[in-house]
């Protein structure tokens, strides 16, 4: 019954169109969906019906009697060749490169099934999807050619002014209208704004190279910026497409007509189509604590040799990635400590960016990740406040990284006994400016600069039974080199603990005790 209704709707719509124009479009091999969208037939209509074909439209023109519903099957038959505008895209036909065969999925449900099977094969766990469609530029050129042809012929007629010049539906939108509801049913979720993307990339190497050579002749032989394109891929096409699009857009109508053959040649090969689905990066954020002086923040390898026993990045990510079933990860942290510096106190904010996650972790999954990391055998690293966070966390962390204050505890040795005046001197200094030249130890990888940094406050904690060793607690602006602030780096950091106390000072151990950043609390 539904089919009968579909047929009635298509029939009524088709017969409301000017017959001579409809006939004209059919005679130059424009497909049913392209005809409907050129006339701006509203979105609610027949795009998703598998019955909307050129053979049906043609038969409606010949015979205005509604065909009996049991004979509707015959209208799904294929005609040789593909649409001269969309090159088969809206006929749901495509060339399958992997299997080297032409797919004529005239039925919307078959086409949608192909996509839903891919999503299921890859085991995506989804709560929605959004469709992304990429089309070869030749389709825009074809459409422009047909529209100019129609304008020349029917430009003065009322319906042309009203319908053809009014907002029409693009090939992309028409394809979405055709397949979205079937996809929603098959996937069991709604389409909309989603981090899960289904991408359909259409290419037509043959037609596109023809367009390129047309473009080439427009450029009077200057081919310096037109790449030759044998392989048609998403990446390679965007740049040369932009060049061609600019040229096409700059053409006057009459110039365009001179360049393009009309009516267009018959198309016997549809576009090739690549299906791909992926999820936009998801982020898991929190704070980490590092209890080892032999674990680096990121995996650190020099000349094939690993520095330290492990890295924070690997310990955390190796527990996150399997649960999210992602392809890859990136580790971001708010600053870093040296390999021999522990990260204590509240911990350091970090984010793991997971690419193409098949699964978005639930709160139970997050707990499991925390459990695994915090109860590992070595206990080099622990995490706290672990959460699934939005992508804005990345920006907040980057901003916070530069602005925020850091707190440290340093074990310091000085060349003479510590006295009470020293304690006074140190604790009386508030928001003191210091100048730091790039430390000698990092000069090989950082450019030589002089930076101003602020030491917000300091406090000395005496160590019982020792007069030349003490713990220095200090709070500084992010980006301060603490080791250099203690020993002075041969005068490259000034003032330093050594210069303030008028003696030699060395740093033996350093711990980060707090990294202030509200968002990650
Ligand atoms: Zn078409």
What's the quick description here?
The chain contains 17 helices and 19 strands. The chain has helices at 2-16, 19-27, 32-38, 54-62, 108-121, 138-154, 158-164, 171-187, 205-218, 234-250, 253-259, 312-324, 363-374, 392-403, 420-428, 482-487, 497-501; strands at 93-96, 101-104, 130-134, 196-203, 272-279, 282-290, 295-296, 301-302, 305-306, 310-311, 328-333, 342-355, 381-389, 405-414, 432-437, 450-462, 469-477, 493-494, 505-515. Strands 6, 11, 12, 13, 14, 15, 16, 17, 18 and 19 form a 10-stranded mixed sheet that branches. A 3-stranded mixed sheet has the order 3-4-5, with helices on one face. It has a two-stranded antiparallel ribbon with strand order 1-2.
Description:
By secondary structure, the chain is of the alpha+beta class. It folds into 3 domains: about 1-280, no CATH class; about 280-400, Alpha-Beta Plaits, CATH 3.30.70.2510; about 405-520, Alpha-Beta Plaits, CATH 3.30.70. About 35% of the residues lie in helices and about 25% in strands. The protein contains 17 helices and 19 strands. It has helices at about 1-15, 20-25, 30-40, 55-60, 110-120, 140-155, 160-165, 170-185, 205-220, 235-250, 255-260, 310-325, 365-375, 390-405, 420-430, 480-485, 495-500, and strands at about 95, 100-105, 130-135, 195-205, 270-280, 280-290, 295, 300, 305, 310, 330-335, 340-355, 380-390, 405-415, 430-435, 450-460, 470-475, 495, 505-515. Strands 6, 11, 12, 13, 14, 15, 16, 17, 18 and 19 form a 10-stranded mixed sheet that branches. The chain has a 3-stranded mixed sheet with strand order 3-4-5, with helices on one face. A two-stranded antiparallel sheet has the order 1-2. α12 runs antiparallel to α13. The longest helix has 17 residues, at about 140-155. The radius of gyration is 34 Å and the shape is elongated. The two termini are about 60 Å apart. It binds zinc ion. Zinc ion binds next to α3.
């Amino acid at each position: 019954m539904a089919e009968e209704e579909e047929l009635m709707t298509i029939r009524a719509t088709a017969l409301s169109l000017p017959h001579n124009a409809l006939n004209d479009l059919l005679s130059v091999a424009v497909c049913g969906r392209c005809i409907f969208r050129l006339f701006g037939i509203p979105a609610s209509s027949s795009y998703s019906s598998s019955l909307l074909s050129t053979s049906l439209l043609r038969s409606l023109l010949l015979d205005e009697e509604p065909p009996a519903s049991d004979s509707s099957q015959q209208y799904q038959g294929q005609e040789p060749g593909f649409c001269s505008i969309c090159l088969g895209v809206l006929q749901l036909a495509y060339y399958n490169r992997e299997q080297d065969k032409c797919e004529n999925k005239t039925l919307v449900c078959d086409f949608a099934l192909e996509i839903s099977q891919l999503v299921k094969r890859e085991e995506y766990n989804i709560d929605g999807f959004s469709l992304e469609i990429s089309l070869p530029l030749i389709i825009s050129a074809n459409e422009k050619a047909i529209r100019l042809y129609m304008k020349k012929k029917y430009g003065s007629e009322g319906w042309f002014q009203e319908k053809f010049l009014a907002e029409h539906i693009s090939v992309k939108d028409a394809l979405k209208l055709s397949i979205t509801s079937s996809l929603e049913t098959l996937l069991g979720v709604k389409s909309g704004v989603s981090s899960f993307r289904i991408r359909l990339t259409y290419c037509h190497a043959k037609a596109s190279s023809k367009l390129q050579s047309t473009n080439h002749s427009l450029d009077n032989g200057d081919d310096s910026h037109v790449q030759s394109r044998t392989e048609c891929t998403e990446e390679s096409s965007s740049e040369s497409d932009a060049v061609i699009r600019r040229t096409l857009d700059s053409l006057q109508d009459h110039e365009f007509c001179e360049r393009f053959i009309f009516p267009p040649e018959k198309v016997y090969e549809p576009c090739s189509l690549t299906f791909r689905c992926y999820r936009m990066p998801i982020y898991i954020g929190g704070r980490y604590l590092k209890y080892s002086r032999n674990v680096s923040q990121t995996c650190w390898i020099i000349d094939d040799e690993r520095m330290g026993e492990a890295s924070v990045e690997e310990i955390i990510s190796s527990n996150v990635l399997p649960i999210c079933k992602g392809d890859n990860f990136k580790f971001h942290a708010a600053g870093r400590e040296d390999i021999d510096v522990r990260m204590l106190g509240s911990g350091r904010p970090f984010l793991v960016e997971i690419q193409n996650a098949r699964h978005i972790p639930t709160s139970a999954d997050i707990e499991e990740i925390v459990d695994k990391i915090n109860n590992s055998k070595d206990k080099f690293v622990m995490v706290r406040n672990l959460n699934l966070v939005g992508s804005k966390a990345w920006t907040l962390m980057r901003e916070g990284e530069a602005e925020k204050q850091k707190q440290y505890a340093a074990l310091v040795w000085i060349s003479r006994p510590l006295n009470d005046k020293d304690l006074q001197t140190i604790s009386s200094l508030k928001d003191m400016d210091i100048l730091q030249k790039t430390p000698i130890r990092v000069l090989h990888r950082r450019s030589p600069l002089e930076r101003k940094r602020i030491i917000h406050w300091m406090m000395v904690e005496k160590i019982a039974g020792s007069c030349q060793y003490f713990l220095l607690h200090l709070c500084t602006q992010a980006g301060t080199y603490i080791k250099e602030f203690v020993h002075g780096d041969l005068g490259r950091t000034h003032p330093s603990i050594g210069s303030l106390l008028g003696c030699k000072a060395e740093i033996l151990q350093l711990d980060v005790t707090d990294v202030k950043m509200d968002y990650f609390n």
